[in-house]
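pipeline: protein-struct stage 2 | run 1193 | Non-homologous end joining protein Ku
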Amino acid sequence: MPEATAPAPVRSFWSGTITFGLVSIPVDFYAAARPRQKALKLVDAQGHPLGRQYTRESDGKPLSRNEIVRGYETDDGRLVVVTDEEFASAAPETSRDIDLHRFVPLAQIAPAYFVRPYFLAPAARSGKAYTLLAQTMERSGKVGIGRLVMRSHEYLVALIAEGGVLRAETLRTFDELRTPEAVGLPAPVEPPRKLLDAFAREVGALIEKRLDLHELEDREAEALQALAQRKARQGRDVVEDAPAAEDADADADEGGAAKVVDLVQLLRRSLAGRSGEAPAKAARTESPPAPPAPTGSLADKTREELYRMAAERQLPGRSRMNKAQLLEALQPKRARRRG
């Protein structure tokens, strides 16, 4: 159903340069898909938002962020601790290039490989080159296959031209998809002709010349939205807005968990390819921009800020230190003797 109000303008969230041969075309990335529905928030009976708390599986003990490290599970079930330096060295080299290395027919890419779509818009003065590439690809029926590094994660992408617009589709890797044989599907057999004709008649009765896009609606989300709005109008089960509790550790945990998930495939390939080798001495990627350090004493700083200071001073063993240990290591020698 059409939206009642005009949608808010969409902003570009990333920019890069399409490169192949001697061609370079700057583009801006826009998300081509929106969230399916508003997420339900977890709150208590008074409407206070709930925070995440990590616990140890063996005894249920709650853990702070300073007690948590990254662990990579090998194929034989063992856990290998990955330090911050090793984690950074495994990340791909930072680049703004969308490096296309070949063009193939679109029909050769099964829909199951597509993950997430993005619209690409010409940036700077690349409008003419953008249009030439889009029209050339569309007329030839070819799509570009390449790689890009976005937010410290390397993606496989298919560059598709449609209606004069370029769209990038992130792709699953070959080993992520199962084959029909892997899930136990039997080999196809030739059915009797009479049954084929009967099924063809049933399918033919439902054939339409054009897909009605309004049929692609989320009835569950619409029903949930209608329920919430109806109860809000009636004043039923409405809680007053409660101030969200500030929990820096919880926020950091969520961000860290997301980063581990993003790079797990990269770590798997990296560890498998260099088993027995020492980790790279220097990270090859730029770290995400750090928040401004707060003013005040060292005790007022977060563990992340203390860790960055320790990295600048090249303190050994810093990746395994909690906040208290980092604080002790960073204190001037005179101050530590007085304590």
